[in-house]
Specification:
Largest interface: A-B, 61 and 64 residues
Strand content of chain B: under 5%
Helix content of chain A: over 70%
Number of strands of chain B: 2
Largest sheet of chain A: none
Number of domains of chain A: 1
Order of helices and strands of chain B: HEHHEHHHHH
Radius of gyration of chain A: 22 Å
Structural class of chain A: mainly alpha
Number of helices of chain A: 24
Shape of chain A: globular
Shape of chain B: flat
Helix content of chain B: 55-70%
Oligomer: heterodimer
Structural class of chain B: mainly alpha
Strand order of the largest sheet of chain B: 1-2
Number of strands of chain A: 0
Radius of gyration of chain B: 29 Å
Chain lengths: 510, 206
Amino acid sequence: MGWDSKLLLDLFATAFGWWYIIIPAVILGIIVGAVPGFNAANTLILLLPLTLSMKIELAMVFMASLYCATQLGGGIPAILVNIPGTGGAAATTLDGYMMAKKGKAQQALVLCFTSSVFGGLITSVVVVLALPYLVHLSFYVRSVEMVVVMLFGLTLIAVVAAEDMLKGLIAGFFGLLIGAIGADQIFSTPRATFGFLELYEGVPLVPALIGLFAISEALTMIDQKTILTEEGQEKAAKARWADTVEGLVISVRQWWLITWTAFIGLIIGIIPGAGASIAAFVAYQQARTFSKTPELFGTGIPEGVLAPESSNNGVTSGTIVPLMAIGVPGGSTAAVMMVVLQYQGIVLGPRLFIQNPHLAYGVFVSMVVAYIFMIPTIIPLARYLSRVTLIPTQYLAPLIIGFTIIGSFAPREYIFDMGLALVFGIIGYIARKTGYHVTAILIGVILGPLFERYLMRALRISQGNIMVLFSSTVGNFLWVLLLLSLFLPYLRQRRLRKTRAKGAAEPSDS
Amino acid sequence: MRRPFVPRKRNVGLPHGGEDPALGVTPPRTHRTNETYMLTELDKEKNKQKPIGADLVIPGIAIVFTIYYLSTIWNLRWEAKMNGLAVGGVLLILIAILLVKTTLQVKRGEARLSMGHLLYPLESQGRRFGLIAAIVAFMSVLPYLGLTLAIFCFMCSTMLILGVRKPLYLLVTAFAVATGGYVGFIVILNTRFPHGVVENILARIF
């Protein structure tokens, strides 16, 4: 598994020569990522007849470019209308939408695009250079560690997303239980399906996402004339090219934040099963922890957009690492790629890097090239995309509901899923109004089936001994981190309260 | 509305230098003003209390769902119920902590069990219920009208509910969405949306 500079240059030259494949894939990926209900995996499934008929190198370039672009596209509706296009963009809503409300949508979009591009670019380059060593990371994470990783992710979301941690945890565990609806994985016995056959395979994620984010947001936004604040309306109306430039300058100044949060995404992406949604929240939480102004997170600051977007794009190259190196797909999109590779008779694993280095390394090089092509394709559009925030809610709310409710039908083609989206929309509306963050519920629903799978695997290996969850060093280290993430915010808040009380008492003393 | 009891002492030294009407001195304001003042004082007291009744709606739904979930797994083998018991158990413990916290806040007078922020602003509630009704109506008529006509009617009705009165804007927006839905989901993606009169006519033309 080695590489030489000549091979690398050759790969770059070939990848640039495939611009006619990469640019359409990037444009399609951005559109797909921006539409809730569509993601890279289901689009690639739809396009299987096309990719299966292509030459395998071209098919991989097309799929990898589209995958990278969807992660970037997911941030667009997250910023403009508080609806993440993909699960990985859920954390972007926290500060991105707040920036849009202040009339800084254009700047937020530029920050999203630049951090996505540079985060993805950096991690893709690192993967190309360090691929043989990175593969070993996935060997250390087994079912026990995955259970803790899932709980850790959920805890972080509860801490980050909700104003009240207890409410955040309730929302997260409620989502986790909703995610456990459906037949169990061993005996296929239906659980909590309310008698609906449509829930036998579990709660479909697209109607859950559309309901919790799109419909609930539309039901909430009708209280105001526009989604913008009064000050925001003035700023948004005066948006100029200078705002795009300002966004670029902020991104350059925050290069270090973009770099290290991208690496968080890369490491989490390499672990099979953990995904962009967890990576983005971990990055957001870490950015807040190391920030000089942690209290400003959630109010609409650039760092709150840069960290999750850089991280979720770091995941893209990470998920393909175990696929190419050990034949284990890191996520659903990588699983579709695996289908195409196996159809063409490619044997995945370490030998691939010796027998077919052009294909093995070529995927990652094409990702680097795709990110380079994204810069001129998407950044100039930020100014025009930001105009969406100026649309009055009496038009915007029906548009959101109209498009997304149709989108909830598309993946499984059941009218039932539209009804499910409405139910989730009402739950999401109540959650929004009462401070139970919808993101925590959604991440719970996403992680529910995965959590059960890893928990069952760990328990079956140990013949039902629950102590197996505390049997590994890596797992125990993660348990400690989980407890720290629960108690540190509480202790910090208590200290802050004491300092404030002291500050209030001092003037009266004097 | 029952008038709240206000002790006499509180009326002494009211704004505008007024005195208690019960003492026989004509106050420099009407009785109505005095009552408004008393209510405002009480309102201020009330406003200091956080309305947290609505915060219990999600935990309420979660409790009902957890009980239902547990009832469906009770007789299954341990492999099928372990996850539900673990997650449901933690969820019930968390809700119990919230209930204790809420009870203590109400007892201390820091909060009151009102539905406050969930129901207000009241003027939006009608439009909100209208939107929900329009979604339900859309799903009901979709198999008969087909996607294009159903989404056109849905867009028109929801925009009317939200106050759009300009026919041109209303029709153009609804037409654009219906066209987008037809081209995107039926022509390009070939999804199995129910076909109605519009889809059948267009299929014959193209």
